[in-house]
Design goal:
The complex is a heterodimer. By secondary structure, chain A is mainly α. Chain A is built from 13 helices and no strands. In chain A, helix 2 runs parallel beside helix 10 and helix 3 runs antiparallel to helix 12. The mean pLDDT of chain A is 86. By secondary structure, chain B is an all-alpha fold. Chain B starts with a helix and ends with a helix. Classes of the chains: A mainly alpha, B mainly alpha. Chains A and B meet through helix 2, helix 6, helix 10, helix 12 and helix 13 of A and helix 18 of B.
C-alpha cells in the first residue's frame, strides 16, 4: 500500500498534472488560433466586442441571471463552483506538499473554513445530483457524463474529508488517501479532454459564437460542394 | 499525405519527451541528466550533437562550392535544401552545446574576453560566424514571401556571392579546426585515431559526408512527399563521393603506415576492432559500392551507401570526441537515457523545422501540396474542445500537439523523483569512524582522517559528561554513535519518521494520538516529541531546530559540537592557543595498523592533466604509502 501511495504521489502525479496544465494550454491556444484564422478569413469583419465582453462577464459572475428561473439551482451551482476551486487550492495540507517538493507556498485558509467549505461542497454536489434527477428540464438536458462527473468530483472531497478530520486507523487512512490521490489524478487527466475544459475555455465561448457565423466571402459554393449538394435547392 | 503526417507525429513525440528532459536538466543540473564526470566530461552530447552535428552540416559548403565556384548548374535543385540543412544543423549544434555546458549563460564571454591561445576559442568563433553567414545566405528564401521586405532581400541577393565565399571559407576552417582541437591531447587519444594530420583528415571526410548528407536528405524528403527521386543528381553525388572516400582512405592508411602504427590495427584490442568496423562502414564499403555504375544508379544502393557513410563518419566523430579516450582514462561511461533522448530530441526538432520550411517557403522548385488543405474536404471535429473553425489542416495540428503534450508528461513522470528535491548537494552516506579507543573519523571516505582520542576527552571533561556528546540514543541503545542518526555527510535529513510511527510494525498510532482533532494536521500542531520520549535531549543550533524535525548533517554536527567546545577551552587554557584551529584536528597521520588496511583502498585521484604513457599513478601512490610505513 505504501509503495503504491508513493507511486501515486510521485511519478503518476507528475504525469497527470503535466497533462492537465499542458493540455489546457494546448486547447486554449488551439481555440485562439482557430478564432484568429476564422476572423482573418471572414467577409464581414465587424464584431460586437462590447456585447461579447458584457455577455462573457455576465456568464462569469451570473448574478444577473439568478432572478430568471430555477433560482435555487443557479445559487447552488455557483456556490459549488466556488467550493470546487477554493478548497483544493487553499488547503494547508496541499500547500505544504508544494512547499516540501517544489519550494513554493501561498496563503492557506484557516482550518474552520476549509472544514465547513468541504462539507458544503459535498452537500451541494449531492443536491446538484438530485436536482438533475428530479427537475424535468435538467434531466432532459443531461448526458450520462454529467451525472458521472458529479460523482467523480465528489470522490476526492469525501475521501479528503475522511483523511483530514476523522480519527481512523493508519491502514484505513492510507487506503482513503490512495483513493483521494488516484481520483484526483483521474480528474486531472480528464480535465483537458472533457467538458471541464470550460475552466479555461469559458471566456472564449462568446467570441466563438460570434465568429462561427462569419463566413469568408462567396462561401456558399464551397459549402454546397463540401456537403455534396451542388445545385440542390437550399 | 499519411507518410508526412505519421513521420511528424513520431518527431513530435520525441520532441515532447526531450523537452521534459531538457526542462529537468536546466532546473536540476547535469548530475540528474548525464553519466558524465570529471574524468569523462565529454560524452554523447559532444561526440554526437556537436562533432557529428558540425560534420553533418557540411553539405552546405560542399554543394555551394560545387554550384557557385565550379559552376555545375545541374546541381541547382540541391542548393537551397543543402544550405537549409547546414543552417539547421548548426542551430542544432548550438542547442546541443548549450545543454552540455555547465554554465550556458556564460557563453557570451567568448565574444568579449578573448583567449586566442585556446582551440575552443577558434571553434566557438567559427560556429558563431558561420551560423550568421548561413542565416544571411538562406534568409532570401523566407523573405521572398513578404513583399514589404523586398529591399532587404534585394540587398542580400546582391551580396550573395560574398556570403557564399565567406561560408565556404569559414566552414573549411571550422571542419578542420575540430580536428586541430584534438591535436592537443596526444596522450588521451588512441594512436589509431591520433595523427598529426588530423585536421586534414577531418576536412576530407567532411566533404564526403557533406555529399552524402545532401544525397540522403534528397532521397528521404522525396520519399516522404511521394515525389519522383532525383536519381541522376544523387548518382553524380555518389560518384564524386567515391573519389573523395578513396582519397580519405589513402591519406589515412598512408599516415598510419608512416607513423608505424599498422600492426595496431590487427592486435585484437576493442579499439582496434572498432577502428576496423568504422573504416569498413564509413569508407571501404561505400567507396566500392559507388565505384560500379550499375550500383550507383540504383536508388536502393544510394540509400544504403549514403546511410553507411553518414553512420560511419558520425561514429568516427564520436570515437575521436571521447569514446576511444576511455581506454586511456580507465573510466567507464555509457550515456544515460536522458542524454540519448535529448540528442534525439534536438535532431527531431531540426527535422520538424526543415519540413515546416519546405512546406511553407520556396525551397523546392514545386512546393509540396498538403492534401488536407483542399477546401472541399469535410472537416473532422476536434473531440477535445468540440469546436471547429479553421481549415482541415488543423486536424494535424491537434494530433501533433496532443502527441507533444502526452510525451512531455511521460518524460516528467520518468525523471527520477528524488532529484526533484535535490538542492544541488549529493547525499553522501556517512561511514562510521574506525579505531578502538582512539577514533579515526573519515565520514566521506576521502581518507583525510581526524583523530579523536576518546579516553583523553573523558578524562578532561569528566566522567559524567557522556551526554555532552551522546545527547540522543537510538531506541533500545544506551550510547549510540554519531553516524547512526547523522547519516548524511553534507545535507540535513528528517529526524521524525512519520511512517514508522503509523506503521503497525512499530508504534501503530492513530492520527488523534498526536494531532489534536479540530485542527490542521501538520508538524506545527502535533504533540511534542518529549511528551512520549521524556528522556530525549535535543540540541538546537541555528535554524535547524527540532521543531523543523531535521537532523544536522554529519559535518555540521561534528563542527558544532567540537569547535564550540574547543573555542571555549582555548580561551581558558593559556598554553593551548591553537586548540580551535582547523589544522589541530585535520592533520592526522594514520597509525601503522590502520594505514596498511587503508592503503589498498586509495583510489587514483581525479586528474585534470594528461597522464604520460608508461606512468601508472595508482601503483606510484601505493608504493609511496608502503614506503612511508
Amino acid at each position: 500500500m505504501e509503495s503504491l501511495l508513493d507511486f501515486a504521489r510521485g511519478p503518476l502525479f507528475r504525469l497527470c498534472f503535466t497533462i492537465m496544465i499542458l493540455g489546457l494550454a494546448r486547447i486554449l491556444s488551439l481555440d485562439v488560433w482557430a478564432i484568429y484564422k476564422a476572423y482573418r478569413k471572414a467577409g464581414d469583419k465587424r464584431m460586437p466586442w462590447k456585447l461579447i465582453l458584457s455577455r462573457a462577464w455576465e456568464w462569469f459572475f451570473p448574478v444577473k441571471r439568478i432572478s430568471r428561473n430555477f433560482q435555487m439551482y443557479s445559487v447552488i451551482s455557483i456556490l459549488f463552483h466556488a467550493g470546487l476551486i477554493i478548497v483544493p487550492l487553499f488547503l494547508l495540507a496541499h500547500i505544504q506538499l508544494w512547499k516540501g517538493s517544489v519550494g513554493i507556498s501561498w496563503i492557506a485558509l484557516p482550518y474552520g473554513w476549509t472544514f465547513s467549505l468541504t462539507i458544503a461542497t459535498i452537500v451541494l454536489a449531492v443536491s446538484l445530483f438530485i436536482g438533475r434527477l428530479v427537475i424535468k428540464q435538467a434531466r432532459l438536458l443531461s448526458r450520462k457524463q454529467d451525472y458521472l462527473w458529479l460523482l467523480l468530483l465528489l470522490l476526492p472531497f469525501a475521501t479528503g474529508f475522511i483523511c483530514s478530520n476523522l480519527n481512523i486507523s493508519p491502514q484505513s487512512y492510507q487506503f482513503f488517501m490512495l483513493i483521494h490521490v488516484l481520483s484526483g489524478e483521474l480528474i486531472f487527466i480528464l480535465i483537458p479532454f472533457s467538458k471541464i475544459a470550460h475552466c479555461v475555455l469559458a471566456p472564449l465561448s462568446q467570441v466563438v459564437c460570434a465568429v462561427a457565423w462569419k463566413f469568408p466571402p462567396k462561401t456558399d459554393d464551397d459549402i454546397c460542394t463540401t456537403l455534396n449538394k451542388k445545385g440542390a435547392p437550399i | 499525405m499519411n507518410r508526412v503526417h505519421n513521420t511528424k507525429f513520431v518527431l513530435w513525440l520525441i520532441a515532447g519527451f526531450a523537452a521534459a528532459v531538457v526542462l529537468n536538466r536546466f532546473i536540476f543540473g547535469l548530475g540528474v541528466t548525464t553519466n558524465l564526470n570529471d574524468r569523462t566530461p565529454w560524452g554523447l552530447w559532444i561526440g554526437f550533437d556537436v562533432m557529428g552535428g558540425v560534420a553533418l552540416a557540411s553539405g552546405g559548403f560542399v554543394i555551394t562550392a560545387i554550384f557557385y565556384i565550379m559552376k555545375r548548374e545541374q546541381f541547382y535543385p540541391l542548393v537551397k535544401p543543402a544550405v537549409l540543412t547546414a543552417f539547421l544543423g548548426y542551430l542544432a549544434v548550438i542547442s546541443g552545446l548549450l545543454v552540455d555546458l555547465g554554465l550556458p549563460w556564460n557563453i557570451w564571454h567568448m565574444i568579449i574576453y578573448w583567449n586566442p591561445h585556446s582551440p575552443l576559442f577558434e571553434v566557438g568563433w567559427c560556429v558563431m560566424l558561420y551560423t550568421s553567414v548561413l542565416l544571411l545566405e538562406f534568409s532570401p528564401v523566407p523573405l521572398e514571401k513578404f513583399s514589404r521586405y523586398a529591399k532587404v532581400r534585394n540587398f542580400l541577393m546582391k551580396f550573395r556571392f560574398v556570403f557564399v565565399l565567406l561560408g565556404i571559407m569559414l566552414s573549411t576552417l571550422h571542419q578542420s579546426s575540430l580536428g586541430t582541437l584534438f591535436l592537443i591531447m596526444p596522450f588521451k587519444l588512441y594512436p589509431l585515431w591520433y595523427s598529426n594530420i588530423l585536421p586534414i583528415q577531418f576536412f576530407i571526410s567532411a566533404i564526403a559526408l557533406g555529399l552524402m548528407v545532401v544525397a540522403l536528405e534528397s532521397l528521404v524528403s522525396h520519399w516522404l512527399y511521394k515525389r519522383k527521386p532525383e536519381t541522376n543528381l544523387v548518382a553524380k553525388l555518389c560518384r564524386i563521393a567515391a573519389w573523395v572516400l578513396t582519397l580519405y582512405f589513402v591519406v589515412k592508411i598512408t599516415d598510419i603506415i608512416a607513423e608505424d602504427k599498422f600492426s595496431l590495427i590487427f592486435n585484437g584490442a576493442w579499439q582496434s576492432n572498432l577502428f576496423i568496423i568504422e573504416v569498413l562502414i564509413s569508407t571501404i564499403i561505400p567507396a566500392v559500392l559507388f565505384a560500379v555504375p550499375k550500383f550507383y544508379n540504383n536508388v536502393k544502393v544510394q540509400w544504403t551507401g549514403s546511410s553507411l557513410v553518414i553512420i560511419g563518419m558520425v561514429l568516427n566523430r564520436i570515437d575521436v570526441g571521447g569514446l576511444v579516450m576511455l581506454g586511456v582514462t580507465g573510466d567507464s561511461y555509457t550515456p544515460a537515457w536522458t542524454e540519448i533522448v535529448i540528442s534525439l530530441g534536438i535532431v527531431s526538432i531540426a527535422a520538424l523545422v526543415f519540413l515546416f520550411v519546405i512546406e511553407n517557403f520556396h525551397v523546392w522548385e514545386t512546393q509540396p501540396i498538403e492534401p488536407e488543405s483542399i477546401p472541399h474536404k469535410l472537416p473532422l471535429f476536434d473531440y477535445s474542445s468540440r469546436t471547429w473553425l479553421g481549415t482541415p489542416d488543423v486536424s494535424s495540428v491537434t494530433t501533433h500537439s496532443l502527441a507533444f503534450v502526452i510525451s512531455f508528461a511521460v518524460g516528467m513522470a520518468l525523471m527520477p523523483g528524488k532529484h526533484l528535491h535535490s538542492k544541488g548537494i549529493d547525499n553522501i552516506k556517512v561511514s562510521p569512524a574506525s579505531g578502538i579507543d582512539t577514533l579515526y573519523i573519515n565520514g566521506n571516505r576521502d581518507n583525510q582522517f581526524v583523530k579523536f582520542p576518546h579516553q583523553a576527552h573523558i578524562s578532561r571533561i569528566g566522567k559524567d559528561s557522556c551526554f555532552t556528546c551522546h545527547h540522543l540514543n537510538m531506541p533500545g541503545e544506551k550510547l549510540s554513535q554519531c553516524w547512526e542518526c547523522h547519516t548524511s555527510m553534507y545535507t540535513s535529513v528528517d529526524f521524525f519518521k512519520h511512517n514508522s510511527h503509523i506503521s503497525n510494525k512499530n508504534a501503530n498510532l492513530k492520527c488523534d494520538d498526536c494531532h489534536k482533532s479540530g485542527e490542521n494536521r501538520s508538524a506545527l500542531t502535533a504533540k511534542k516529541c518529549t511528551s512520549c520520549h521524556p528522556t530525549y535531549n535535543f540540541f538546537t543550533y541555528g535554524k535547524n531546530t527540532i521543531q523543523k524535525y531535521k537532523i544536522l548533517s554529519y559535518t555540521d554536527a561534528m563542527h558544532n559540537l567540537c569547535v564550540s567546545c574547543h573555542i571555549l577551552e582555548s580561551r581558558k587554557l593559556k598554553d593551548k592557543p591553537n586548540l580551535a584551529l582547523c589544522s589541530t584536528c585535520h592533520k592526522t597521520q594514520l597509525p601503522d595498523y590502520l594505514s596498511a588496511a587503508v592503503s589498498w583502498k586509495i583510489k587514483v585521484p581525479h586528474f585534470n592533466s594528461v597522464i604520460l604513457p608508461g606512468v601508472d599513478l595508482k601503483k606510484k601512490i601505493i608504493k609511496s604509502v608502503l614506503k612511508s610505513q
